[in-house]
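For the sake of transparency, this paper describes our internal protein records without simplification. Such a record has a labelled line for the sequence and another for the backbone structure tokens. Nothing more is needed to write down the fold, since each code stands for a local backbone conformation. For reference, a complete record is included directly beneath this paragraph.
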Amino acid sequence: MPQLTYEVNKAVDSLIRGKLVAFPTETVYGLGGDATNEEAVRRIYKVKGRPTDRPLILHVPDLATVKKVVLNWASTESKLASRFWPGPLTLILKNGGFISESASAGYKTVAVRIPSHPFALSMLESFAKVGSGVVAAPSANRFSFVSTTNAEDVEISLQNYLDKADMIVSSNSRDECKFGLESTIVDCSNGIPTILRVGVIKKTEIESCIGKPVRISKIEGRRQNSPGSSSIHYSPKTAFKMISNGEIKRDLLDLCEEGETFLWCFEKPVHTHQNLIAEVAPSCPREYGRQLYSKLNSLDREQLALILFEEPPKNEDWNAICDRLDKAKNRFCTKKL
């Protein structure tokens, strides 16, 4: 535990001095700064290249701190907090005015969660003793590109933008992002609970918890009070496509003519090609999600002509993965099936 204590203390010191800390959570790595420090929050946007009209998720250590930053804590959010916090759930609530205006992007709402990762929680608890205890942290990667789940990918994505005084918390098994996908976001600010971003925590679980229906919103293409809702997001720089099992059987060899092609599929393809590298993907959605971003980041460094992922099943267990893959289909791929 000495190494954990050392890194926590170092991270807290960085936050107090207005520097940025890239740290692991149970979802993905976050790029964090003191949410009450306007200069630190503005640097988060600058380092990520993130539009300043996109609010940041606030990470806090406990409910007492949540109630400092939000207004109108009610029964719905209380039930959700009791069931899912600490954990991969973000709630959107009325802004209590405690944080930097830039962290909320000028909205009258804020997005907040209590993470369950041991490092993140320890850092936040320690920061609450000497500072605000509120860390604004989007994913630790350049805006619209693939999220990161280990320190190496963070460094590769952000090394040209971070200062020497900023900190990237090291990766090891203790620091593993066990879910690998961003948190589920539920808007509780207007009386009708609405999922703005699907995640590990499913709609049916939320409905069971609060005892009433929950909507799933489609908000792409307009200004939004929720992170992760752009129509293009989580995208590798390499051309990327989702492909059905039928298209694998029918079109795979033609697609390989583009050059070296990687295929992540649920069973080995019958046909082979000199340009094709095929790997079998996990059939378990939780393991698939855990590996997804590290796989995409790794492939993006291989100078491939094309990355192909077989379409996952269309059911609730795979909804969050399908959402990320659908948004990863990007502007760089022009080859039509």
Residues 52 and 105 are 6 Å apart (CA to CA).
